[in-house]
C-alpha cells in the first residue's frame, strides 16, 4: 500500500465518522426552540418535543436554522 492510499483511507474514515455524528445530532426546533429535532428517515426530521416534522437534507438539516444549530453543536463539542 502506497503512502497516498493510506492517507486516502484515513480521510474516508474521518468523513464517515463526521456523517455518523451529523445523523445522530439534535437540531434546534424553530417552533418550540428546543434542541429536539432528530433525523427520523432520509430527509425527514422531527422535533421530539412538539412533533413538528421538517423536510431537510439526507444527513443534516439544510435550513438556516439547521446550519446555526450545527455550528452551535460544533462549538459546544470543541469546549
Ligand atoms: Zn419543537
Describe it.
There is one protein chain. By secondary structure, this protein is an alpha+beta fold. It has one domain (3-78): N-terminal domain of TfIIb. Helix content is 47%, strand content 20%. The chain has a 4-stranded antiparallel sheet. β3 (44-47) and β4 (53-55) form a beta hairpin. It starts with a helix and ends with a helix. The site of zinc ion has 9 residues, from loops.
Outline the secondary-structure elements:
Blueprint: H1 3-24, E1 27-28, E2 35-41, E3 44-47, E4 53-55, H2 64-78
Antiparallel strand pairs: 1-2, 2-3, 3-4
The chain binds zinc ion.
Q: Give me the CATH fold name.
A: N-terminal domain of TfIIb
Label the structural class. Answer: alpha+beta
Instruction: Supply Rg.
Output: 15 Å
Mean pLDDT: 75
Counting H and I runs of at least 4 residues, what is the number of helices? 2
Strand arrangement across the biggest beta sheet: 1-2-3-4
Number of domains: 1
The CATH class, by name, is Mainly Beta
Share of β-strand residues: 15-25%
Query: Any low-confidence stretches, pLDDT <50, length ≥5?
Result: none
Overall spatial form: elongated
Based on the coordinates given, report the CATH architecture: Single Sheet
Euclidean distance between termini CA atoms:
37 Å
The biggest beta sheet reads: 4 strands, antiparallel
In total, the number of strands is: 4
Bound molecules: zinc ion
Order of helices and strands: HEEEEH
Q: Determine the fraction of residues in helical runs and give it as a percent range.
A: 40-55%
